[in-house]
Here is the input.
Amino acid sequence: MSFTVDTLAPVSDMMRECGLEPKKQFGQNFLFDLNLTGRIARSVPNITDITVVEVGPGPGGLTRALLLAGAKKLIAIEKDKTTEPILSKIMDASDGRFEVIFGDALKVDLSDLEKAGYAVCSNLPYNVGTELLIGWLHQMAMGKNIKSLTLMFQREVAQRIVANVGDEQYGRLSVLTSLVSDAKILFDVPNTAFVPRPKVQSAVVQIIPNKSKIAKLGDISKLEKLTAKLFGQRRKMIRGIIKTNWEEFGLSGTERAEELNPEQFLKISSILDKNLL
Here is the structure.
């Protein structure tokens, strides 16, 4: 059966029929606006030639849009088993292009997708979005074949991802993202587009791995530990957090984490004794 949006009832009707409601424990805020879901899906680079992974599809609003945009294959990872009746109907109408894995996205093994590579496109659950992003950045740095990330976050988180040194939002996410990839905010999404309506605004971020940056990176685990340690006490001077000869890095030690640019973090992490982290 060819997939068209007309083959299925509206998402809200299917939710009502199945008695499905957003669950706070899963950080669920569902997106029903067809214009927005379509815009997000069409933002995925080379979508017709690649497998797309969606985390937290819920009742499938963005899922439908990704299929309509021509995703070669779509794999959804969903923790909430109560969404199964709706996702099964989408699967039946997807012409074999859609499958669902019920489980924790933080633990699901996607190594089978490595050879051809895959993209990620998700309206991420608020409660695990940052942790998932750091995991994907780590995988990119390790050479895993992730082609792109097109992700919706709270706008505050999105701003932290793309911030530069000197910006108020600059922090750990900014440094890690900058040293692995090229990132930009594609567009904002108003809170009125969600059910239930969150208190915060959202934004869609696109992150593309940068091979030349990754080649200079070395051990990302040291970089992760360094950024966590220094930004964890961002008001303190760095010499008060890590006892080392800061002149070796061209620094006095009186700097704070927010004053160091990504290249300085990279230099420090590549030379600093790992026992100090």
Notes: Residues 142 and 257 are 25 Å apart (CA to CA).
